[in-house]
Amino acid sequence: MDEINGGAPAPYTGDVLQVRLDKLAKLRERGAEPYADSYARTHLTAEIRDGFAALENTAVAVAGRVVSKRDLGKNVFAHIQDGAGRIQIYARIDALGAENFALLKTFDVGDIIGVSGTVFRTQKGEISVRAETAVMLAKSLRPLPEKFHGLTNVDLRYRQRYLDLITNEDSRRVFLRRAAIIRAMRGYLEEKGFMEVETPVLQSIAGGAAARPFVTHHNALDMDMFLRIAPELPLKRLVVGGLERIFEIGRNFRNEGISIRHNPEFTMMELYMAYADYRGVMDLTEDMIRRIARLTAGTEDIVYQGTPVSLAAPWRRLPMEEAVRLYAGTDFSEIRTDEDARAAARTRGLEVPAAAGRGKVINEFFEAFAEAELIQPTFITGHPVEVSPLARRSAEDPERADRFELFICGREIANGFSELNDPIDQRRRFEAQMAERARGDEEAHMMDEDFLRALEYGLPPTGGLGVGVDRLVMLLTDAASIRDVIFFPAMRALD
To answer: What percent of the chain is predicted at pLDDT more than 90?
Structure first.
């Protein structure tokens, strides 16, 4: 079959599909509707297994997908799977009656059925339901992957996630863990007094991050609009409005490459905390992630792709220039001019823009030589202002920003800073970004006059944080690729 081989879905042709279509027709000939509108289920499979002592010999009604079937003539054993797990169904001709038993024998692996009967334990010790009635709820016209061992075709797993979830228990566990991680994050923030808010996904100005946006057009307003690259600027407007502790968990969109760490549509948690600085946000970030790990993984000592990682406090805090000195062997305290910085980059084989300043070159050195070395949780601090257009300048060194990035296993997990609340400085930063755009940098910030107007009314001292939810889920589920933790990752179109 084409779909099992990873190609486009086949039409309703072929021997297997025709057999199932014939069964569908026979069901209707018997007056049985093969696509029911509801079913009065009384228990989930897990409730029966976990509560067997109280439910033995009790009448129940269960429903789910047939995932295995053994026909022994006058007896049929099958397993059905619902959202909570699996349970065995045992059917006998004398219990169901000849007509209904004959109907049940035609059910295929993949069909969704409802079964009522009594709970018992077989001689082999398996908790089961002794069927008294069995009805078709949704006839499956396509067979599940052979032998029900899960999908080995990785491309197919991502394109047809529904098959992956049916056949791959590990995949189901990842997404259950994902939901638990988001639930734990939300609970932690609400406990700390944060209010959850929603801001526009469709924006007239793309801002809040250095990224290339997706562009669309609003017909009624006759104007181009952008899918948001970050919710930062609308959220800070809310802080100006007096909402002092807020967060949003939502989708962002960046028109960039696809890799094991990047998907053009991804989930971000972003928060703002009035009267806090980046140090306070670092403390909150460390405490929150450690809490989430304990609640969802059961430990602060995890293993990611074979590498032990300790989330126990305290986490290392390392200035960016010091990280470059340690891992690249280049000391930027001795490289003071933009020209010398670009020359140092050329010496190390790094390609940087002709107009790149010293700060941007430092960041390029960090990404090329240091980032991958940061395995244990590490906060990188002291970013150049040049690459931090929305962060407050450091009072100790005006060339650096009061900013941090959290790296674990060589990947950025979070980014935060003391927010720039000086509207005059912010305008200069936007103007510098616009100059970068004019030189061809499509990821540079756009000018946002309304945001500047909001700052002119007064933004209190504020700390902000963005956490890449997908990457955090990868870390806490030991997933090698971001595609393993997103239900429907972006994929190339099939020919």
So the answer is: 84
255 has a pLDDT exceeding 60: yes
Alpha carbon separation from 411 to 27, 261, 476 (Å, rounded): 54, 8, 13
For residue 10, the model assigns a pLDDT of: 52
Domain identity same for 42 and 137: yes
Does any domain span residue 54? yes
Provide the CATH number for the domain around residue 85.
2.40.50.140
User: How many domains are there within the chain?
Assistant: 2
- Quote the pLDDT of residue 14: 64
Whether the ω angle into residue 308 lies within 30 degrees of 0, i.e. cis, is no
In a domain, 323, yes or no: no
Largest CA-CA distance found in the chain, in angstroms, rounded: 90
Q: What is the pLDDT of residues 277-328, one digit of tens each?
A: 999 999 999 999 999 999 999 999 999 999 999 999 999 999 999 999 999 9
Mark whether 39 and 140 lie in a shared domain: yes
pTM: 0.91
- CB-based contacts of 447, cutoff 8 Å, min separation 6: 205, 430, 431, 433, 434
Q: Give the domain extent around 254.
A: 168-315+376-484
Sign of CA pseudo-dihedral 149, 150, 152, 153:
positive
Angle subtended by helix axes 232-240 and 449-457, to nearest 10? 30
293 and 203 in a common domain = yes
Residues 92 and 187 in one domain: no
Q: What is the pLDDT of residue 446?
A: 85
Whole-angstrom distance, CA of residue 215 vs CA of residue 369: 34
Q: What per-residue confidence (pLDDT) applies to 313?
A: 93
Write the DSSP symbol of residue 303.
Answer: E
Inside any domain, residue 452:
yes
274 and 308 assigned to the same domain:
yes
Which residues, listed in sequence order, are joined to residue 223 by a DSSP beta bridge?
Answer: 218
Reduce the DSSP state of residue 26 to 3 states and report it: helix
How many alpha carbons lie under 13 Å from residue 12 in its C-beta half-sphere? 8
Range scoring the smallest mean pLDDT among 61-75, 143-157, 352-366: 143-157
Q: Are residues 125 and 179 in the same domain?
A: no
Task: State residue 479's pLDDT score.
Answer: 97
The rounded distance, in Å, linking the Cα atoms of 65 and 8 is: 24
On whether residue 356 sits in a domain, the answer given is: no
Spatial separation of the C-alpha atoms in residues 79 and 70, rounded to whole Å: 9
Are 366 and 380 spatial neighbours (Cβ–Cβ below 8 Å)? yes
Contact 235, 199 (CB under 8 A): yes
CA distances 310 to 267, 299, 300, 317, Å, are: 25, 9, 6, 15
